[in-house]
Amino acid sequence: MKIKFFKKNRNSFLNKIYKLEIYFCIITLWSCSEQLMLSEEAYILDNITIIDPIDGLQKNKQVVIENGTISLILDNENKNFFREKKVYNGYGKYLIPGLWDAHVHFSFNKHFTYSMHKLFLAYGVTSVRDTGGPMGIVAKIKDSSNVNPMTYPNVFYAGPLIDGSPSVYNNSSPSFPLLSIENKSSKDLESNTLEILSKEVDFLKAYEMLNEEQLFVLTEIGRRKGLNVTGHIPLSMNLYSAVKAGLNGMEHLRNIELSVAQNSKELLLERKLMLKNPDRLEGSKLRASIHQKQRMSSIESMDDNELERAAQFLAKNNVWQTPTLILYRNYATKSFKDSIFISSLDQLPQIVKEGWRIEIDKTDTIINNNSIRYSNWMFNIVKKLHQHSVPFMAGTDTPIGYLIPGISLHRELELLVKCGFSNLEAIQTATINPALYFGLENKLGRIKEGFQADMVILNENPLEKISNTKTIQAVIKSGNFLSRKYLDSLMLKDKAVSVN
Fold first, then answer.
1. pTM listed for this prediction
2. How many other CB atoms sit within 10 Å of the CB of residue 364?
3. Rounded to 5 degrees, what are φ and ψ at 390?
4. Is residue 202 within 8 Å of residue 227, measured between CB atoms?
5. Rounded Cα gap, residues 471 and 294, in angstroms
6. Cβ(101)–Cβ(128) under 8 Å?
7. Handedness of CA 394, 399, 400, 401 (dihedral sign)
8. How far is CA 63 from CA 34, 69, 405, 421, in A?
């Protein structure tokens, strides 16, 4: 009886297990069939190697793009599921997220404003952060991006530079076009900033001629509205007071040297006297006179202990750095005089090309030693801050300094690697890091299911050599596959090729 009872219960138990297995198989097959029901517009990148900025390299993957997003990432053995779908052969290719240039100025050159987006896409830059320009211009660019997300980079903008008085970029010369709004008082600043906010800007940009009270007012508005405030350390302040006031981003490392000099307190007092501006200089000339008097002397008298303190302070307060190393390296070495660079001007609109060539021809080839020393100093500071885990974004300042949109970003990544960033860390500065800055880390900057399909297909592995980010085979913008032929057309004036 005991044996029969055991057999009976054993058979009952096995029957239940069998039924459960069938049930789970049905559920699994139903789930898979639901997953694999793709829209007509869906397509697949087959047998491609993913380089995600967080998870790193992943070989032999299938990436399904659908409705502008990455809908599925599967191992390559699942390819038979998609026999009837459009498939791009990714064998031997590398897939990275679309790149960011986190410091651009669409409005700096009015002849370039409405064509810069083409070169960004041609070089795999699918998102940009405009760090200062008249609202009417940059808002129009952002509107174009929103209306045409498949053929424009994503645009995030600050509106005009929020400056004190006298303002620097006040249309006083072609080198200082109207990029800023002047604020003679804190009351003016509050009123003007609230007007800027009504245009739904993505962040705020503080500039050098602000006084301490004005920066406090600006950052308090930013806090209330949940917006980052980046910029230059105002000349009326030092690094510590500006960050404590709420400045949570720094562009070009601007004026950090004044706070790490052995005589930084004396320099601050000297600046405050100069800012009284008894000679009534224009903003650009007043700023230049202060830089000429203090910048190089500060570098020469840099206090290593103060630099260590500053690095720890910036890391603790998570102050984002966008150093634009390529801008200063370009000025220092005058690489824009090279024949290779001159030939690359053919990518530009004719009026821009002619204007740049005239200006470059007038520039001598004499290398300024101070410019080289300042550029080298920047490299050392970036290396130091990176060692302390200060957060970085890659940006260029294009089109200032004859920096061609798109290609300059790749050169910036190369310089970051020279400063001690690993290749993957450099890629992070132009992918996931800017997304983190804007709180979009769950939407942009990675190769992951559910993320916006902004990606770049490369012929060579950028983890082996960072310059391989330039070996672009195709760009995917909001799911739209832009072939090499189409990308080439974006670099040629008055040529048009339909998007594939």
1. 0.90
2. 8
3. -70, 135
4. yes
5. 42
6. yes
7. positive
8. 17, 10, 29, 28
Same-domain check for residues 124 and 29 = no
> Measured between alpha carbons, how far is 334 from 331 in angstroms, rounded to an integer?
5
Could you tell me the two tokens for 327? 């801008």
Answer whether residue 62 is part of any domain. Answer: no
User: Rg for the chain (alpha carbons), in Å?
Assistant: 27
Give the number of domains in the chain: 2
Report the amino acid identity of residue 15. Answer: N
pLDDT at 38: 73
Cis ω before 134 (30° cut-off from 0): no
Question: 90 in a domain, yes or no?
Answer: no
Q: What is the pLDDT of residues 193-239, one digit of tens each?
A: 999 999 999 999 999 999 999 999 999 999 999 999 999 999 999 99
Q: Residue type for 483, please? A: S
Q: Are residues 7 and 128 in the same domain?
A: no
> Which among 347, 364, 368, 452 is positioned nearest to 98, based on CA atoms?
452
What is the tens place of the pLDDT at every residue in 178-188?
Answer: 999 999 999 99
How far, in Å, CA of 209 to CA of 169, rounded? 11
- The CATH number linked to 401 is 3.20.20.140
What are the pLDDT digits (tens) for 262-299? 999 999 999 999 999 999 999 999 999 999 999 999 99
Residue 280 near residue 353, CB atoms below 8 Å: no
